[in-house]
Amino acid sequence: MRYVIFDLEATCWETGSKPTRMEIIEIGAVLLPHADAQPEREFARFVKPIAELTLSTFCTQLTSITRADVDSAADFRVVFPEFLNWIGVEPYTLCSWGAYDLNQFRVDCQRHQIAIPSAFERHINLKKAFAGWKNIKPCGMKAALNILGINLEGQHHRAIDDARNIAKIASVLLPVLAQKD
Question: Cis link prior to 91 (omega < 30° from 0)?
Fold first, then answer.
C-alpha cells in the first residue's frame, strides 16, 4: 500500500476562520511507497485563491506565503488534478495530521464543483493514531516530533515542510499500525 502524506495551508484570519471561508493556498505531499519506506517523491504547489483575493496579515505571518506566491499560481481547478496525477493509480491511503486537511479538500472540491475521489475515504488521521499509540491526548505535529526525538525541519506551517515532518512521524507510526492489521 502506498501512503500519501499531505498537508495543506489555507487562507486564514486571526478570528473567523471557518473551513467554508478558508481556501487552499498550498498543497504539500510526500509519497511513501509502503509503510516502512523512506519518502520516494514530493509534490509542492501554491494555489491561487478565488474567493478572497487578499491574504490576511495573520495568514502571511503564520505561513510566510505571500500574495506574490499565490498570484503566480494556478487555481484549485488546475492544481488539484495535478495532485491526483502525481499520486497516480489506486490503491493508496491518504494520511494527514488531523482531520482538517481532508475536510478542506472536501470544501474546496465542492466550491469548484469537482468530485472528490472515493479513494480519499481511505484516510489515516495520524494525529489520532499517534495519540492512541502513545496513550496521550492528541497533540500538535511539533509535540509529536519532540516525543519521538525528531527535529522539526523547514518552516512550520508551510505545507511541503509540514508534509516532510509528518512523513518522519508516519515512518515510525505506520509500521506499528500495519502490525495491528
Answer: yes
* CA atoms within 13 Å, Cβ hemisphere of 35: 13
Q: Which domains are delineated in the chain?
A: 2-180 (3.30.420.10)
Does residue 28 contact residue 44 with C-beta atoms inside 8 Å? Answer: yes
What pLDDT digit, counting tens, does each position of 112-123 carry? 999 999 999 999
This prediction's pTM: 0.96
Q: Is 9 designated active site?
A: yes
Catalytic residue among 34, 40, 121, 157: 157
90 is an active site residue: no
